[in-house]
Amino acid sequence: MLSLFAFPKPFRGHIGTIQRNAIGSWVRLHQACEVLLFGDEEGTAEVAKEFGLRHFPAVSRNEFGTPLLSDVFMKAERAARHDLMCYVNCDIVLGSDFLPAISRVQQSCGRFLMVGECRNLEMGGALSFWQPGWEEHLRRHALERGKSRGLSAIDYFVFPRELYGVIPPFALGRAYFDNWLIWKARALGAAVVDATPAVVAIHQHHNYSHVAGGRQYVLEGKEAQRNLQLAGGLRHRYWICDATHVLTPETLKLNLGRYFRVRALREEARIMARSLRPGTLFWLLADLTRPIRHPLGIRLSTFERLASYLIRQK
């Protein structure tokens, strides 16, 4: 069965409500599943006790006080009762389609990482788990009114224990560590499966008031830039569209679309419009051309030399 683990934000106000919604959905996946909560943020111990979950308050942090992904993963793998793991953000509601999707991937793949796009949905209050049909109602609402979070928003990761080994000391909740997790799985030769067509996972929309500097700091601040360095640069910024396979309701198939990345072009354009730091344009072009360059044997070093030559000719 499955061991889910997460590091919740402080349980305050709207964030507290949606995190309870998420955890409430996880504990209802199957009685054999377990949920591990990490960190000593406000309310975490109380919520763990309320839901009967194991709680691990001590987590290593960087000098900014931000928890380290490496320590959370290491402690989760040591403590988990199951060999199949799922790191999930604590605002994601999972439903009855989640475990069957994992089972299908597990039957077809040896080592794998399963990810998928989530539907972004405004949630006004607590979910009524006690009401019959709550999941069907929520699923229909998400499909009709929710919007895709996009290829670069990666909110859950399902993988066998010890897939990753040593993980860099990424700052949790900051940009780029999720992209690295996809790249690393690919680099290790694991199948990376995009389960979007088979799983309706719901991201409950929220603001970034829990972080000083808000969303911009999460995506572009000092800790995000350090995460980018630890990840090895934008060359390792893999997205959901870089999955090797796609899981549909009918079958598991090769993801030929990873060689084209049409949707990724639009997201890259938005990133370029938001920030064009020195060198950003080069790395974005390198990232976009990766699926074409690699089959042709044109590696990054060659691309760098070509770019340098063209610049000198101007």
Keywords:
314 residues, alpha/beta, Spore Coat Polysaccharide Biosynthesis Protein SpsA, Chain A, four-stranded mixed beta sheet, 11 helices, 13 strands, disordered C terminus
Side-by-side strand order of the widest sheet: 3-2-1-4-9
Mean pLDDT over all positions: 87
CATH 2nd-level architecture: Alpha-Beta Complex
- DSSP summary: helix tally: 11
- The fraction of residues assigned to DSSP E strands is 15-25%
Q: So, the CATH homologous superfamily?
A: Spore Coat Polysaccharide Biosynthesis Protein SpsA, Chain A
Count of discrete structural domains: 1
User: Gyration radius, to the nearest Å?
Assistant: 20 Å
What is the count of β-strands?
13
Shape: globular
| End-to-end C-alpha gap | 59 Å
Structural class: alpha/beta
In the CATH scheme, the class would be Alpha Beta
CATH fold-type name? Spore Coat Polysaccharide Biosynthesis Protein SpsA, Chain A
The share of residues in helices is 40-55%
The biggest beta sheet is recorded as: 5 strands, mixed
Low-confidence stretches: 310-314
Q: List the secondary-structure elements in sequence, H or E.
A: EHEHEHEEHEEHEEHEEHHEEHHH
